[in-house]
Amino acid sequence: MNVGELEAVARSLVAPGKGILAADESAPTIEKRFKAIDVPSTEENRRAYRDLLFTTPGVSEFISGVILYDETIRQRAADGTPFTKVLERQGIVPGIKVDEGAKALIGFPGEKIAEGLDGLRGRLPEYRTLGARFAKWRAVIDIGAGIPTRYCIQANAHALARYAALCQEAGLVPIVEPEVLMDGNHTIERCEEVTTEVLSLVYAELTAHRVVLEGTLLKPNMVVSGKGCPDQAGASRVAEATVRTLYRVVPPAVSGIVFLSGGQTPRQATEHLSVMNALGKHPWELSFSYGRALQDPVLKAWKGKAANVPAAKEAFFLRSKLNGAARFGRYSTSMEPAA
Ligand code: 13P
Questions:
Q1: In this model, does residue 317 exceed pLDDT 80?
Q2: How many Å lie between the centroid of ligand 1 and the Cα of residue 293?
Q3: How many Å from the N-terminal Cα to the C-terminal Cα in the chain?
Q4: Is any ligand 1 atom within 6 A of the Cβ of residue 260?
Q5: 22 lines ligand 1 (CB under 6 A)
Q6: What is the mean pLDDT of the segment spanning 56-84?
Q7: Separation of 217 CA from ligand 1 center, angstroms?
Q8: Which residue from 290, 299, 320, 323 has its CB within 8 A of the most atoms of ligand 1, so it is best to mutate?
Q9: 108-156, pLDDT tens digit by residue?
Q10: What percentage of the chain exceeds 90 in pLDDT?
């Protein structure tokens, strides 16, 4: 493991004004996204869609890295160039999702454990040869009656740490993603309490596994009200609760924090990030690694039609640019196009 190299990659992913595009939807997830726009999830449609994202001119000013799925890292642009090369030529770092999804945690109804550790050590060198320089593993924590249990948090934190250690051995920067879901009626206070416990256990496990924190990035949820909670916290409450939580439990040695959007609207995700960055200088870069918040408007503009590709690229460029502004705390809703 070359610690200096890992840290340099981690820092480049959170370079000022830039963040990550999460385009690593698994086969079932991309099928769901395509279904919403009435597009069949064929291999060619998936390729064409990722092609439009990765060949959008100018986005490298705002996009530092792209997380790919196993199928995508092996695919090529329309002109035959491997996607990884298309990204590298623009100075965008390719990454790879390596967990195999969140599955039922037996004995703990309603809770999940991310799978994919078996054989992981053998899979990572190929991804590095294909061009990946960082990886992602997503653990899912649900809030509900009597959950999450300490056991579920512990099991997921342990798996995240095993994954992170293996990535560093293989020369890949691990993005550590413990996602506390927004689904449910819980208050923002409950989200803060659970997120605090989750992140505390994650850092205890990372340290116990001798993971070099400088060569990692954290991908957390923001601290928000549950989707069904009658009291929906506004941007300043979300920003303050999220930043307070991070200050309490994330070591300053971590190179950067790249939020997931988790079901927030694109505008909310951009605004929340901007308000957090406007609060002042933080020990870590506060950035984004958005899936839906970057892609929802792109999918809606594209609808699977070649004729819509220019409009879809424009939509992707705009969301990237607005999130780039949010990295400096300079986003305002007046920058959005009129509805
Ligand atoms: P969302 O921003 O849509 O939550 O996706 C980010 C991600 O990579 C989830 O694992």
A1: yes
A2: 8
A3: 50
A4: yes
A5: yes
A6: 98
A7: 15
A8: 290
A9: 999 999 999 999 999 999 999 999 999 999 999 999 999 999 999 999 9
A10: 99
Tell me how far apart the alpha carbons of residues 281 and 161 are, in angstroms, rounded to a whole number: 28
Token digits for 104?
């039922």
Is 25 catalytic? The answer is no
Residue with tokens 């993005």: 175
E strand spans, 144-290: 173-180, 217-218, 256-259, 285-290
Exposure b/e, 195-207, CB count within 10 A at least 16 = b: bbbbbbbbbebbe
Kindly report the backbone phi and psi dihedral angles of residue 179, in degrees, each rounded to the nearest multiple of 5, phi listed first: -100, 115
Alpha-carbon distances of 41 from 66, 68, 98, 144, 299, rounded to whole Å: 21, 16, 21, 32, 13
Is there a catalytic annotation at residue 219? Answer: yes
Distance CA 108, CA 46 (A): 35
pLDDT band at 1 (very low <50, low <70, confident <90, very high): confident
Listing DSSP states for 71-102 in one string gives HHHT-B-TTS-BHHHHHHHTTPEEEEE----E
- From the CA of 291, how far away is ligand 1's center (Å)? 4
Distance CA(158)–CA(193), nearest Å, equals 20
Residues contacting residue 91 through CB under 8 Å, at least 6 positions apart: 60
Does this model's pTM top 0.90? My answer is yes
Burial of 318: CB neighbours in 10 Å, binned 0-12, 13-18, 19+: middle
Phi, psi of 79, deg, nearest 5: -85, 10
Residue positions counted in the chain: 339
Ligand 1 touching residue 48 (CB < 6 A): no
pLDDT at 339 over 70: no
Rounded mean pLDDT of 25-33? Answer: 97
